[in-house]
Design a protein that fits this description.
single chain, 117 residues, mainly alpha, 3 helices, disordered N terminus, Lipoprotein
């Protein structure tokens, strides 16, 4: 019994360690993609914020602010793949990832938009 418990604990520890390493690599890739997109937008002086498409457009990260005000202040651009229709769990996951990406992009870009003068 003690041997089985020790084996189970060892496998659990290895699984946690391996799983966390994979998550770290994914986060690093996403961060570098985001940083590259922000850098390119700044180089082009494109301060537009991403918004989700659908019946009610939303600027991720700035849901509490009026869409029209953000549009007038910084400009907006549609985030591809963020419409109202979700057909599967994969669609739901992709939409969530796109929303998180847009949120992080918008937070960085909004600060640049405000300080561009």
């Amino acid at each position: 019994m003690a041997v089985k418990l020790a084996t189970a604990m060892a496998l659990f520890a290895v699984g946690i360690t391996t799983g966390c390493q994979g998550m770290s690599e994914q986060a690093t890739n996403a961060d570098s993609k985001l940083d590259l997109a922000v850098s390119q937008a700044l180089a082009e002086k494109d301060f537009r914020l991403y918004y989700t498409t659908g019946r009610r457009p939303v600027v991720p990260g700035f849901e509490q602010l009026a869409f029209k005000e953000l549009e007038a202040q910084c400009g907006v651009k549609a985030m591809p793949g963020t419409g109202d229709t979700l057909r599967s769990e994969a669609d739901k996951k992709a939409r969530s990832e796109a929303y998180q990406y847009a949120r992080e992009f918008n937070i960085k870009m909004y600060e640049a938009c405000l300080n561009r003068r």
